[in-house]
Design brief:
2 domains; single chain; alpha/beta; ten-stranded mixed sheet; about 425 residues; globular; Adenylosuccinate Synthetase, Chain A, domain 3
């Protein structure tokens, strides 16, 4: 079985955790390959709800080996907090693997993230303030701290002192903040060494060996396509590659291994933070979607901006990621609406545009062109086959499939773990 990638196909919060959890019982490894604790997955198992921020959602399934690979930036305080919280609820986390090459978020990264965002004023990006961007910047600038550095105090101290030489000048001279002592950072990072050591591995090698042994490896993307640093709505994006290509660079597994790429889309659209959002609603419909879908960030608690389904974005995501399947989530949230608009194209400078404009300015000014579909009032949360859905609900799903450029293989009809309709086997068995 080749490697399988799951990515968000909109602006995040599409329900990737549920999709991963759906497949987890049939896979051997679940790999988080990008991002950090700036996003989260909510997984409901029975009466229990689990909010995961840094750990792969597959950690909730017994027998699955969860991996945090080299493309992730890790806040060690958050990592061990999540581990302790899961252990307290009876979840076994002993199989967790952490890449020796993953970069570490330090206190100075979090500080810089917050002060630089405030410094931007009206031009704020909407960062979570968790140090993600500054850590990736250090990685690219080759002054980052990696997991493996924590096990060599001399190297760790040299790297921290080198990083702080510039950063303290910036903090004190530009942002009027106190300098950060290298000793404090080194002591904090060293305090995790003994607990961290048993988890650390050459994860790229282990994953390669797993695939060679015909085991199934699932790669779980954080954030989403429209937040990808290269392919998203730049600069209102995250600091990593959240598209399918990031699964290769973020894990050390070659691209030929990836045969199945699954995109997760909501039956409507949401986004958190600043940036263009053509279908955003500012009326009662937007409030209805937010309240009914409980659209508040798993990590930040921030209310999400809500809008109707955007088919050009879905087509863009299908193309950029090479999607083989869509999983449509939160279809049940639309129950009770008499009419459901779907964005099928945009109007830009008086002209109809079928695809996402390459110009950020054009996309910012794009006006959605809608096609309306009949709604339904029946409760669909107990449906487990496509035929059990109301006819107008089926028509809506089929329309989205036609407009989105890829088949819809599974449909989420409620928050429960088993509230999902499978139309096509996502693993191709």
């Amino acid at each position: 079985m080749p490697a399988v990638v799951i990515i968000g196909a909109q602006w995040g919060d599409e329900g990737k955790g549920k999709a991963t959890d759906l497949l987890a019982e049939r896979i051997d490894y679940v790999v988080k390959f990008n991002g950090g604790n700036n996003a989260g997955h909510t997984v409901v198992i029975g009466d229990e709800k689990y909010a995961l921020h840094l750990l792969p959602s597959g950690i909730l399934t017994p027998g699955v080996i969860p991996v945090i690979s080299n493309g992730v930036v890790i806040d060690l305080e958050v990592l061990f907090y999540e581990i302790a919280a899961l252990n307290a609820r009876g979840i076994d986390t002993s199989k967790l693997r952490v890449s020796a090459n993953a970069h570490v978020i330090t206190a100075y990264h979090r500080t810089l993230d917050k002060v630089t965002e405030r410094f931007l004023g009206k031009r704020q990006i909407g960062t979570t303030g968790r140090g993600i961007g500054p850590t990736y910047a250090d990685k690219i600038n080759r002054v980052g701290i990696r997991i493996q550095d924590i096990f060599d105090e001399n190297i760790l101290r040299q790297k921290v002192e080198g990083a702080l030489y510039q950063k303290n000048t910036l903090l004190t001279k530009v942002y009027n903040r106190k300098a950060i002592a290298a000793d404090e950072i080194v002591a904090d990072l060293l305090s995790y060494a003994d607990r961290l050591r048993p988890m650390v591995a050459d994860t790229a090698l282990e994953l390669h060996q797993a695939l060679e042994a015909n085991q199934t490896v699932l790669f779980e993307g954080g954030q989403a396509t429209m937040l990808d640093v290269d392919h998203g709505t730049y600069p209102f994006v995250t600091s990593s590659n959240a598209t399918a290509g990031g699964a290769s660079t973020g894990s050390g597994i070659g691209p030929r291994e990836f045969k199945t790429v699954i995109g997760i889309v909501k039956a409507y659209t949401t986004r958190v933070g600043a940036g263009p959002f053509p279908t955003e609603l500012f009326d009662q419909s937007g409030e209805y979607l937010r309240a009914t879908g409980f659209e508040f960030g798993t990590t930040t608690g921030r209310p999400r901006r809500c809008g109707w389904y955007d088919a050009p974005i879905a087509r863009y995501s299908a193309r950029i990621n090479g999607l083989t399947d869509f999983v449509l989530t939160k279809l049940d949230v639309l129950t009770g609406l008499k009419e459901i608009p779907v964005c099928v194209a945009y109007e830009v400078d008086g002209k109809r545009v079928e695809e996402v404009p390459v110009s950020q300015s054009d996309f910012h000014h794009a006006k959605p062109i809608y096609e309306n579909f009949a709604g339904w009032t029946e409760d669909i949360s107990t449906a487990r086959t496509f035929d059990e859905l109301p006819k107008t609900c089926q028509d809506y799903v089929l329309a989205l499939e036609r407009l989105s450029g890829c088949r819809i293989s599974a449909i989420g009809v409620g928050p429960a773990r088993d509230a999902i309709i499978v139309r096509h086997d996502l693993l191709g068995a």
